[in-house]
TrEMBL record, chains A, B:
<dbReference type="InterPro" id="IPR028082">
    <property type="entry name" value="Peripla_BP_I"/>
</dbReference>
<dbReference type="GO" id="GO:0003677">
    <property type="term" value="F:DNA binding"/>
</dbReference>
<keyword id="KW-0805">Transcription regulation</keyword>
<dbReference type="InterPro" id="IPR046335">
    <property type="entry name" value="LacI/GalR-like_sensor"/>
</dbReference>
<dbReference type="InterPro" id="IPR000843">
    <property type="entry name" value="HTH_LacI"/>
</dbReference>
<keyword id="KW-0804">Transcription</keyword>
<feature type="domain" description="HTH lacI-type">
    <location>
        <begin position="2"/>
        <end position="56"/>
    </location>
</feature>
<protein>
    <submittedName>
        <fullName>LacI family DNA-binding transcriptional regulator</fullName>
    </submittedName>
</protein>
<dbReference type="InterPro" id="IPR010982">
    <property type="entry name" value="Lambda_DNA-bd_dom_sf"/>
</dbReference>
<dbReference type="Pfam" id="PF00356">
    <property type="entry name" value="LacI"/>
</dbReference>
<keyword id="KW-0238">DNA-binding</keyword>
<dbReference type="Pfam" id="PF13377">
    <property type="entry name" value="Peripla_BP_3"/>
</dbReference>
Amino acid sequence: MATLHDVAKRANVSKMTVSRAINHPGQVRPELRTNILNVMAELNYQPNAAARALVSRRTRVVKLTIFEDMDTTEPYYMMLLAGISNELNQHQYALQLATSNSYKVGECDGYILTGIREKNYAWVEQLSQPVVFFGRTYQDYDYVDTDNYQAIQDSVAYAVQCGYDNLVFVGIAVDAPFELDRERGFQDFVGENHLHSRVIRLANHGHIATDYLRQHWLEFPKNTAFICASDRLAIGIEDGIIQQGGNVPNDYGVVGFDGVFLNQIASKRLTTMKQPLEVMGRAAARLLLAKIAHPQTTEQEKIIINSRLSISESTR
Amino acid sequence: MATLHDVAKRANVSKMTVSRAINHPGQVRPELRTNILNVMAELNYQPNAAARALVSRRTRVVKLTIFEDMDTTEPYYMMLLAGISNELNQHQYALQLATSNSYKVGECDGYILTGIREKNYAWVEQLSQPVVFFGRTYQDYDYVDTDNYQAIQDSVAYAVQCGYDNLVFVGIAVDAPFELDRERGFQDFVGENHLHSRVIRLANHGHIATDYLRQHWLEFPKNTAFICASDRLAIGIEDGIIQQGGNVPNDYGVVGFDGVFLNQIASKRLTTMKQPLEVMGRAAARLLLAKIAHPQTTEQEKIIINSRLSISESTR
DNA sequence: CTGTTAGCGCCTTCAG
DNA sequence: CTGAAGGCGCTAACAG
């Protein structure tokens, strides 16, 4: 592996000049600089991350903590992970995946946090490194999220446009910002447009949605669209409709939320609000790296990324 | 953050002695050593990974490459990841997640490889760092895997014990060791026990299994058990049976394979061969770290971990 | 068994 | 704009 020293010798300059050519390009004469860059390319020079880490007192590690049972972890975390690591790789940063029981082990330069519960906030507040959340929180931390409010509005608008005239929002029974935003998006839309509507809240399990539908089947006339807060619920609803003899999508529409993996599993592929998770992962990583580089910034950063409706077989 | 120097001063020894107390305990007088350890604890000393990496010419990074579309990635990778990182964290190692388009970026001390295709072997062979595969390959690389042969035998044995007398193996139409092992496990078992049986091979998608079942429904009498090579197929089969009016589990049994996440989605929760993925991930990481520490070892290491049948609602 | 010396590769600081 | 010196925290190699 080529080092600064090798490049310097070959380019007839000192190590420092090479170092500067990389980190402070403005401080090196342009011609010299291009020459150095050429030599670097020739030698396939790669800066040594450990040496940089040592001198800059950085670990070059970012920790991603997922405060959820891995067992029940949504598959979409994989996409998120892919996005995060793609971005980190480009900056010679490595990842440390921490789970709810190991989140205190090891050093890092910053954290990407997700699935946080109330009781973890004390730990978060005491962290000295910068933090970025995946998903909005109640606190004033930086975060990356989809526009849940807008996304549900788009879903409902689409359902209405399909001609469904009874709108049901199937929410997740949890007191979290993402859920409240989605619910509010629904309420506002049906309110403004004077639509028949209803909101139900269920635990986020397919079979619970199926059971609910069985028990309340008669309350849902033809031409009902179910706007669901997750693909799990959407699949459960869809199964329930089919088991009750309902026709999807002609008499009943189903719209999911997430758009990763699960929508491929449904018997009628789900129309779903697809979150660009890879992009969101990258954004979270980029934001965190920026904060690591410039820790002084004080204002809260919010990155809102738009979801896109992926239309499939569960709506007409 | 405390350094070797701080500990040394406080313990009235040189840095080297402290270093040795950590890395070569045998070379330090026992009493001195315990004293040093105490001081380390007092100061909450954590060795600086970057400095170690620099001097030992290691990166302290392990790369995990997943040669699959993240989009269709099985959710169980999350469990695998959890296992790997739990083990790495304990050894001050970080992770670098590489996907099929970024697998050449960055340095590392070793690789955990999965989802490899024929065309990637050239790249693998040219790697200078140690490699561990997740899942057996055709080549003589070290690997961690479940005992696919045994697992399917157990599945069939259980189905027989349930009283199903027509056994159908629903395999994945792919020419891979894991699949051939599973198929062989099935064939050997039904052969030795002179059972009615049949093997079909399908692309690994739920709806394809459902379609297949619809088209061939009449060929499957009551008392048939479907032993599936994946939970996706199992869910598809189960859906198909139910749509044809068949009774699960009374008249038809379904057994899946994997046991992560998907089995929770099925309308009748799947009986499935549950792979201990967290454990497998840890094992892979541990094996790799051992190879990094002792690169000379030449013999192929195979770690085979047993799966366990998780009995649920899709068998009687 | 313990200490001293030197250096891993890079960057900050200070001279030129 | 460029170079020389020194040190980040740790450990291998050699003295004692």
